[in-house]
């Protein structure tokens, strides 16, 4: 089951943080079709937020076709965003392990989470710009 966390400093609306965490869990294979999400009441008890916030996040994901609500039973994962076959799953698991190793090494080198995130964002921005340049020929 997913364990929601909120970042009050992010500036991102709470319902969007919840929805994004579900999407990430779907991409990483942590949630699979048929898995039940926590009830709004459970999320409210853990995070001390308004139940409508949880319901708004779930409704957005339902509109996207990722979740299905079964009246009286709960909210369930309808589809995944993760790798489709075992080869893709294995490759993703390997990449995730390499990233975890890199983060551990960065922390051992004295970097804090903000430093690591800044480096990640810089690399992502640079990589995306490089892809853009390749596609456009500029």
Automatic annotation (TrEMBL):
Q: Keyword check for Cytoplasm, yes or no.
A: no
Could you name the domain of life of the organism this protein comes from? Bacteria
The HTH gntR-type domain extends over 12-80
User: What InterPro entries does this protein's entry cite?
Assistant: Tscrpt_reg_HTH_GntR, WH-like_DNA-bd_sf, WH_DNA-bd_sf
The answer to whether keyword DNA-binding applies is yes
- Any coiled-coil regions, as ranges: none
Keywords attached to this entry: DNA-binding, Transcription, Transcription regulation
Full protein name:
GntR family transcriptional regulator
């Amino acid at each position: 089951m997913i364990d929601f966390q909120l970042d009050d400093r992010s500036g991102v609306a709470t319902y969007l943080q919840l929805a994004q965490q579900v999407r990430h869990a779907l991409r990483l294979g942590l949630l699979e079709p048929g898995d039940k999400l926590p009830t709004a009441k459970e999320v409210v008890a853990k995070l001390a937020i308004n139940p409508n916030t949880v319901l708004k996040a779930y409704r957005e994901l339902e509109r996207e076709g990722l979740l299905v609500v079964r009246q009286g039973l709960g909210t369930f994962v309808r589809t995944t965003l993760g790798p489709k076959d075992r080869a893709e799953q294995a490759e993703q698991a390997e990449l995730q392990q390499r990233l975890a190793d890199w983060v551990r090494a960065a922390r051992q080198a004295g970097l804090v989470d903000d430093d690591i995130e800044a480096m990640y964002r810089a690399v992502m921005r640079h990589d995306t710009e490089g892809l853009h340049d390749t596609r456009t020929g500029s």
